[in-house]
């Protein structure tokens, strides 16, 4: 039986719209009549859009024109006459239409999509980021750390203004802490810097660069407190937190590394380091890992683990409400809650 329906015809050359009569014969022949003219096609050569509830269907014609109709039942009946290869397409069309026509199915699909996205962001991206961080070539990590420090020197940091005594003290404490840590290559190095913008701060960069500001050196009341700060940063290096966090926050770079295996391209992340260190915070899990590492290292050095809690407490007290006004300090990138300080100080 020949199937007939009206449609809006577009010739593909202009935006003009004309009424057409479409006839689809049992053998798959299609006739499109527009006024006194008519064109013949094969149904198999038409690009038929999937059914989306009761929205108009589009029939793309081989010559660039198209027909649009709201008679979805007629189009479905015509498609039902196709055999072999088109059978799967018909089934898909019917399935999509059935799903989209039922609110319960649509809500279930939405829920599955939301849960899948959340699970990927919460668990998938961190897992992949950790694997990539472990496989990153040493040369790429060194480049990332070097370029990152250069970017910070151009934006947030300045040469250290510490006097010779304070500089020697910082170098001495760092060397002592590093010997106790006995970290695998690359060997970490200390980078002393001044900064009015970020104040008292300390952070670790890829490839073993530990940046400590002049204000942080002065804030530490003694060598043990400075060693506690350095031990915490070595914990971030040991667990490669900064690299993993950068990867997690850069989905594009992560996808490139996963799909193309181009791990060296990740060095481009160095341009994001200044913004990351100012605006981002380590995850709670990363902070706890670094805390636990520093506690074990301080015990090995014969230093009371409470020293890190003491210096964090003094820093929070000295800044008062500044952090809420946007001051970037050690607390901004290392969230030191009262609970965490109490845990570090012990009972």
Structure description:
This protein is α+β, with helices and mostly antiparallel strands. It has two domains: 3-100, PH-domain like; 119-345, no CATH class. The chain contains 14 helices and eleven strands. The protein has helices at residues 72-80, 86-100, 103-135, 138-155, 164-181, 214-219, 223-238, 241-248, 251-260, 273-279, 284-301, 306-319, 330-333, 338-345; strands at 3-10, 18-24, 29-34, 37-42, 47-48, 57-60, 66-69, 158-159, 189-194, 202-205, 209-213. Strand 1 (3-10) and strand 2 (18-24) form a beta hairpin. Helix 5 (164-181) packs across helix 7 (223-238) and helix 12 (306-319) packs antiparallel against helix 14 (338-345). The longest helix is centred in the middle third of the chain and has 33 residues, at 103-135. The chain is elongated and about 100 Å long. The termini are far apart. Residues 83-88 and 321-335 have low confidence and may be disordered.
Spell out the blueprint of helices and strands:
Blueprint: E1 3-10, E2 18-24, E3 29-34, E4 37-42, E5 47-48, E6 57-60, E7 66-69, H1 72-80, H2 86-100, H3 103-135, H4 138-155, E8 158-159, H5 164-181, E9 189-194, E10 202-205, E11 209-213, H6 214-219, H7 223-238, H8 241-248, H9 251-260, H10 273-279, H11 284-301, H12 306-319, H13 330-333, H14 338-345
Parallel strand pairs: 9-11
Antiparallel strand pairs: 1-2, 1-7, 2-3, 3-4, 5-6, 6-7, 8-9, 10-11
Helix pairs in contact: 3-8, 3-9, 5-7, 7-11, 7-12, 12-14
